[in-house]
Amino acid sequence: MKFIEILSPLWETVKGILPLTIIMVVFQVFILKKPIENVAEFTIGVILAILGLHLFLKGTTMSLIPLGDSVGRNLYLLDKKIFIVLIGFVIGYFGTLVEPALRTLALEVEEVSAGAISQRVLIHGVAAGFGLGMGIGLFKIINNISYIKIIVPLLAIVLILIFISPKMYVSIAMDSASATTGPVNIPINMALAIGIASVIEGVDPLLSGFGIVGLTSVGAMISVLVLGILSNL
């Protein structure tokens, strides 16, 4: 019985990866008429991807999510709003630095721009914006501010910056916003936000705790657009 309980989550991961893999193989072999170059290596890669994703999701559920929730609940007990916002910025900043999707994006940008946009500068710029969005999100929660009162001004800033920033940075900003919403940031930041919202009297965790990811993405966009403007000075 225990063996079945262990295999059940693994099977859920298999059902997530296998259909996509099969579709791509069908396109490659039967529609594009191109062979799989190294079948053995490909098969091993799929198995490793399944095991890796399964272990990561399991580890996240066991560690990052409970820790983020606990930190959020205990953080509010300090009763220092500025400190909470600063902690949110720091967690968002350092969490973004290790996002694999962002590192991949930064490498591609540096390569395509022939080194004009440094990988290091882009990563730290995006991390600063993400941290800013995280801090704003926690400020919104602890003061029980309506989401629309926060997001509308931020989106207005984004629209203004789009017309000022170089076109290349506008495209990069859009991709950076997506690249930050990866497997490291999402569990920690959402758990932290929901943890704080759940201990504040009169605050609905569903309404206040969620939406934090959107704010962090907007923050990342703003930082990249500002980076583009500074690069032209």
UniProtKB/TrEMBL annotation:
The chain crosses the membrane at residues 16-32, 39-57, 82-102, 122-142, 148-170, 182-200, 206-230. This is DUF1538 domain-containing protein. Keywords: Membrane, Transmembrane, Transmembrane helix. Pfam families: DUF1538. It comes from the Bacteria.
